[in-house]
Design goal:
By secondary structure, this protein is an alpha/beta fold. It is built from 12 helices and 13 strands. It starts with a helix and ends in a 6-residue tail after the last strand.
Amino acid sequence: MSAIRSRAEGGGGAESGLSRVDVTSKDHDYAVHVGPGARRLLPAVLEELGVGRVAVVTAVREPRLPDPGVPFTVVPVADGEHHKTLATVETYCRAFVAAGLTRADAVVACGGGTTTDTVGLAAALYHRGIKVVHLPTTLLGQVDASVGGKTAVNLPEGKNLVGAYWQPSAVLCDTDFLHTLPRRELASGYGEIARCAFIGAGDLRGLGLREQIVASVRLKASVVARDQRDQGVRHLLNYGHTLAHAVERATDYTWRHGEAVAAGTVFAGLLAGRLGRIGTDRVTLHREMVESFGLPTWRPADVPVPALVELMRRDKKGRDTDTGLTFVLDGPDGAELVTGVDERLVASVLADLPTGPAPAAA
């Protein structure tokens, strides 16, 4: 998008000085713009995409919602994991019909990670696929959920069990949205940033927030370029997520995603240590990294270990669960997918992980 590049990186205007990360995929390439005022690029993005009409599915109200510059219909959304369902996807698709969207039109998703996930899946299914542009309004959405093309909703049996790969046409990470985030919502996004230290991004603690977002997106873009559909290296992005998804489901999502990823990251370090993959110092670094962001280093006190193990058996990365569980774990050559981990060892390490209350009550 050369026209968009000139606006984002050229001089003058609210959009000058934005950082840009280009994402390469088999479907199409697209840009992620990061910085204050990034939402104002939306009209230029839609013009370059050639769409004539959009549905804006949004948790944001005027005046923070950008004018897309083309005829549009606003579809309100209630953000949150309990709305991340197939029923919500149907609601969005019916709203697209009412708005008169065709395959030549687009959807704009403006909200947190739940919104970008759910709206992305609706866009992938409607008319067998229409363009979607993401305007993530939370730190979690900006550093992870909006980039890479994974879309999914939950089932009562587990998290993200129904989904599709559908790459966005652009992502606009406006950091101005983050100024009004509740403290706990902002902390949840740091869970994804903390785990980046163990999958190739290095220690991001000394960077400013915008630079942390850019580094996280750049890491994800490099992984997605090599593996769009989880056939290999993309599993690295699930570092800490096997336990995290189990914790979310077991607590009925009273633990936020990033909080659960933080606990899952500490657990991954402990498990890698017990398997002899890393030394004591590296195990300790997992806990210290998570603690430095003010995130939980414990598992829920009110969830039995066997319940967590059973939920981890349903993880999408799992191969043959009869031979053990599957995790992304740190090792001498970096993080990699490890299969066949004995459930008794997993349960033992979980038992060693300290317990505590939900982060909001901590």
